[in-house]
Amino acid sequence: MIKTKSLLLCVLFFLVCSKINADDRIMIFGDSLSSAYGIDRHDGWVELLRKKLKEKKIKAKVINKSISGETTAGGVRRIEKALESINPTVVILELGANDGLRGLSIKTMMFNLRKMVEKIKQKGGKCLLVGIRIPPNYGPVYAENFSNAFSLIASETNSNYIPTLLVGFETDPSFFLSDQIHPNEAAQKIILATVWDALSVMLTN
Known about the structure:
Layout: H1 2-21, E1 24-30, H2 45-55, E2 60-64, H3 72-86, E3 90-94, H4 97-101, H5 106-122, E4 126-130, H6 140-157, E5 160-162, H7 188-199
Parallel strand pairs: 1-2, 1-3, 3-4, 4-5
Helix pairs in contact: 2-7, 3-5, 5-6
């Protein structure tokens, strides 16, 4: 009886320790803003995140599933397969910019974002939802409603939230490529700092 109890205690201790020391799997699920568009991949904020985790001796694997030009509709089509193969503990969901730049339905975008967040949470992952602000190409009302959509989804789904990756430089042209849409190399460290402030509190290690 004593041996059985001791064995059970050992098993429980092992399971608890395994949970505490389990490596986080951080999946980046975004568009060109997260795929180092127009710059060397090693200079992008995702690669800088890998380096930061290593420097801080945090056991976490970063898997980047971002695709340049991706919309929320495209994200919905492929997120389930990505979740199944990676089983992430944290997902940085950074989609919607291309919906806005194309003037697509905000209602549909919100539906897609909500669906992706739900799938993430159904798989046991935490979601860090990243918003974006767009220029008023389709009018100020569309731009405002578009930007507000992300905070509404974050609130509805109880997700962690970043208003935009471009915090601190979104109106400064010196931090963008010649297209004035994509952040340049100099902006990547600022983006990382913004992501890290939100992400660091979500990690288990």
